[in-house]
Amino acid sequence: MAEDTTQGTPHVTDHGGGVWGIKVPIPDNPLGHTLVHVLDTDRGPVLIDTGWDDPESWDTLVAGLGALSLAIADVHGVVITHHHPDHHGLSGQVREASGAWIAMHAADTEVVVRTRASEPGVWFDYMSEKLATAGAPEEHIAPLRAARASGRMRTLPGLRAAVPDREIVPAELLPLAGRRLRAIWTPGHTPGHVCLHLEEKHPGNLPGNGRLFSGDHLLPGISPHIGLYEDPSSERVTDPLGDYLDSLERIGRLQPAEVLPAHQYAFTDAQGRVRELLDHHEERLTGLRELLAAEPLTPWALAERMEWNRPWEQIPYGSRNIAVSEAEAHLRRLVKQGRAEAVPGSDPVTYRAV
Ligand SMILES: [Zn+2]
Ligand SMILES: [Zn+2]
Q1: How far is the CA of 28 from the centre of ligand 1 (A)?
Q2: 260 CA distance to ligand 2 centroid (A)?
Q3: pLDDT digit string (tens) for 261-290?
Q4: Can you give the pLDDT at residue 300?
Q5: Contact 217, 259 (CB under 8 A)
Q6: Where residue 160 falls among pLDDT bands split at 50, 70, 90?
Q7: Which ligand has the shortest distance to the CA of 262?
Q8: Global pTM value
Q9: How confident is the model at residue 3, as a pLDDT?
Q10: 311: CA distance to ligand 1 center in Å?
């Protein structure tokens, strides 16, 4: 596995075969950093993800490229694994400085366009309504309603995210001169998440099929957040956890020799990690079904009883919303599998085991 080998620049890792990783910090975030990958092509360097929109992150990205004797102006293209701000945040600034194109899957581009166009008020109404439906107590929803009524709404990240100019088409090779990089659509973490499969022999001759840039889909030590795809304009009942589990199996079948994720560190044995994550979610689903067998629960009540990295009382406000979304994604899956059902006539809707 590659180490930090580029001399004197601890932020840059040479992965061999014209692939480097730059550790771009995410301010005030336990994740620490995004691994922005640089892929050498015959038309110039291409970035896979860009990092958080922050001056220190930008400086680190520029310095990392500098250590490779590259300038931001040299960047030929930007390929985005998914729309989250720790991946897509600096894309606009990179494009401005270089004229590079930005490519993203259509489903995530849709999120970017929708977020840019939406009034903050619409989002606050949507969240209040969604939380009430999930069974959140009034005291949790009240601050949202109060902020809405006062007009003092925090700006949301992603309001000014760059609109991509190219579409990443699933299963197709990206048009990169001299490289074979294929898009694998892996919805779940976001509706348009993609992994990128570098279909070239591993430079260190590790056994397996090339290398996989896995974004947030497959990480060595973290299970990515799977919530509901939030779309105030759609009534469509989606099953993001089901999408995610299917996407995991697809990646396992690729059998890449090495995985280059967007956080943490590069690793081998993708299949083993896929199996661990599939087992983890199956255990979680089984545990949740047991909770529903004891008593019918709203998504909120289920989230309160689920196991998190700390007791529910200590989970901050915003993280509770994410936790409820995660509980709902698991409920959707259980309902889809016929292992749980909504209790007819309950309001807010409670679910029971089947
Ligand atoms: Zn993400
Ligand atoms: Zn991320």
Answers
A1: 16
A2: 13
A3: 999 999 999 999 999 999 999 999 999 999
A4: 97
A5: no
A6: confident
A7: 2
A8: 0.93
A9: 47
A10: 24
173 alpha carbon – ligand 1 mean position (Å): 23
Distance 29 CA to ligand 1 centre (A): 13
Ligand 1 centroid to Cα of residue 322, in Å, is 13
61 alpha carbon – ligand 1 mean position (Å): 19
Nearest of 337, 276, 280, 310 to residue 30 by alpha carbon: 310
Distance 84 CA to ligand 2 centre (A): 7
Residues within 5 A (CB) of ion ligand 2: 86, 216
Q: What is the whole-number distance in angstroms between the Cα of residue 224 and the centre of ligand 1?
A: 7
Q: Which ligand is nearest to the CA of 188?
A: 1
Task: Give phi and psi for 297, each to the nearest 5.
Answer: -135, 150
- Which residues on adjacent β-strands are paired with residue 261? 215
Residues constituting the chain = 354
Task: pLDDT band for 1, please (50, 70, 90 cuts).
Answer: very low
Q: In this model, does residue 5 exceed pLDDT 60? A: no
Cα distance between residue 82 and residue 100, in whole Å: 18
Q: How far is CA 277 from CA 215, 224, 227, 252, in A?
A: 15, 10, 16, 11
Question: How far apart are the C-alpha atoms of 220 and 222, rounded to whole Å?
Answer: 6
Handedness of CA 4, 8, 10, 16 (dihedral sign): negative
Contacts of 227 (CB under 8 A, 6+ apart): 240, 322, 325, 326, 328, 329
What is the structure's pLDDT at 126?
87
CA of 44 to the centre of ligand 2 (A): 25
pLDDT above 90: percentage of residues in the chain: 82
Confidence of residue 231 (pLDDT cuts 50, 70, 90): confident
Look over the chain and give the mean of its residue pLDDT values, rounded to a whole number.
93
Q: If you ran DSSP here, which 8-state letter would residue 50 be given?
A: -
